[in-house]
Design a protein that fits this description.
Elements (H helix, E strand, L loop, with lengths): L3 H8 L3 H22 L3 H24 L5 H26 L9 H27 L8 E3 L3 H17 L8 H15 L4 E3 L12 H16 L1 H38 L7 H6 L1
């Protein structure tokens, strides 16, 4: 009698979506190699290639009906390398490394900042895997790891384009790395774009905007990516602040309406 384990072994894994995942993992791994060798622009480019392949593997799996638990776990491990380890090491090799000559304590804070980013990416992915099918699909809890990697990586990319030295930007790179990492494990909600009706008819203006984005990407790739993903990272913070302000205003309004509308004053009681 064939057991479930034997069936799983004979079934194997789906090739097509896992090829995309393997490509993303390779791009993330090569980004680490390029960063160690000082090829920072290539390292940034590889991380964005990994993000593109990561966005495609899930969609390919759904289109070809080849989703599997193995693919989900493999994708998470690939994301940890490409969007956790690679950006953290990129920031350290490019800038945070130069905190050591300033003071030994600052040197330790530099590599700890890179580690905070990396472990935040790992925790973010682990939390996401445990919340599949539980939380609202319209929102992410915490900044998604590919978006966090895009913020950090595009910052390095535009700095390289401007011929700015990472050693001169170490005091900017330090808080940027820590804050971006902490945003991944925060409870701040970010729009997931999963509820956009792509299959429905849209206005012609959206096509023009899409063409404009592609044109800008070909002209100033790093700048467009930095503006878009930094704006996305800030959007969750702004939306949370607005939501908290609205809830406080609603609570005050509810408290006022809950009080008796006609309280008698001491003078009114004396007249009686």
């Amino acid at each position: 009698m064939m057991t479930k384990l034997d069936t799983a072994k004979r079934k194997g894994i789906y090739l097509l979506p896992n090829l995309f995942t393997t490509g993303a993992l390779f791009a993330g791994f090569y980004s680490i190699i390029a960063g160690i060798q000082g090829k920072y622009e290539m390292a940034c480019f590889c991380i964005f290639i990994a993000a593109l392949l990561d966005a495609l593997d899930g969609r390919v799996a759904r289109l070809t009906n080849t989703q599997s638990e193995f693919g989900e776990q493999y994708d998470s491990l690939s994301d940890l390398v490409s969007f956790g380890v690679a950006p953290g090491l990129l920031m350290y090799n490019w800038s945070l490394l130069y905190l050591s000559p300033v003071h030994p304590v600052l040197g330790k804070i530099g590599w700890l900042a890179a580690f905070i980013y990396t472990v935040s990416g790992a925790l973010r992915l682990a939390r996401f895997n445990t919340q599949i099918g539980v939380i609202d699909k319209a929102y992410f809890q915490g900044l998604p790891s590919p978006a966090a990697a895009a913020v950090v990586t595009s910052f390095v990319w535009i700095s390289v384009d401007l011929e700015l030295n990472g050693a001169d930007l170490k005091y900017i790179a330090l808080p940027l790395t820590i804050i971006t990492g902490l945003l991944m494990v925060s409870r701040i909600r970010y729009y997931s774009f999963k509820t956009i009706p792509f299959k429905e008819n849209v206005s012609f203006i959206w096509i023009l905007l899409l063409v404009l984005v592609f044109v800008l990407l070909t002209i100033k790739t790093a700048w467009v990516l930095f503006v878009v993903f930094t704006g996305y990272a800030l959007s969750g913070i702004i939306w949370t602040m607005v939501s908290v302000k609205r809830k406080r205003a609603l609570r005050k309004k509810t408290d006022k309406t809950a009080k008796p509308a006609t309280d008698e004053t001491p003078e009114a009681r004396d007249e009686d």
